[in-house]
Design brief:
The longest helix has 20 residues, at 220-239. The model has no long low-confidence stretch (mean pLDDT 90). The chain is an alpha/beta fold and 241 residues long. The two termini are 27 Å apart. It is built from six helices and twelve strands.
Amino acid sequence: MHTFFLPAEAWHEPYQVTGTEARHLVSVLRIKRGDTVRLIDGLGREGIFTVCETGKRHASLTPETIVIHKRPPGITLAIGYGRGLRRGWLLEKAVELEAAGVWFWQADRSQGNVPEESKETWLSQMLAGAKQTGNPWLPGLATLPGGVDELIMKRDGFDKRFVLWEGAAQGAILSLEDLTPAANVLFALGPEGGFSEREITRLTQADFTPVSLGNRILRWETAAMLCLGLAWWARQQETMP
């Protein structure tokens, strides 16, 4: 069944898909009156709808069923901003592996300045992952131009906080036991150039636990994916019969 995005504020009668989503529904997929589609809002709501009318720039729909899913605990990645070419790929995978949030923060060694607000293209990349995998939740997306101090201010509300630091020889290696499915976990990752000494000092003083991912320095998108993958695996151990 084809999946489309309908913003949360548009979930009311009359239900209408417009803009890019409508063009894809009508002109690309050629969905017609009487066909059934799935809608999500990225905030846990999904519904099965019957198409009752199509035009060049809109499609009107009738709801058959609407379900609101409770958001499970999960991983939030706070990633030192950089002009990496793999950001879109990571955002898609973050949806696929059920990340709770993705934050880009201004690190001392960031290449370029993090935008004041998240970009529309980032949302589009996450929506692509949601449509492919059926996940009704999108990760919470944020930018933190205030650097490590703003990141520390947002640490409250998490059950566990880790900083992935390649210099943390004294830190324990991250394990599945650190990622219990019932926990909300925040990971701080540095940019390509790594954390500065100032940032590591500030984070460890703010109760971020240094952990290692092994004896090799990983690129930021690899480290992020490994954290999400470990958390995904831990959840599967709990939920699979």
